[in-house]
Amino acid sequence: MSPNSAGRWSLAALVVVLALLVAIWPRDREATETPDTGTAVAAPAPADRRSQDDAQALAPLRTAAALRSCPAPTGASPAGPLTGLTLECVSDGSAVDLAAVLAGRPAVLNLWAWWCGPCAEELPVLDDYARRAGDAVTVLTVHADPNESNALGRLTDYSVRLPGVQDGSGRVQAAVGAPPVLPVTVLMRPDGSVAKVLPQPFRSADEVAAAVETHLGVAV
Question: Which residues contact 50 (CB under 8 A, 6 or more apart)?
Answer without folding.
Answer: 146, 147, 148, 149, 168
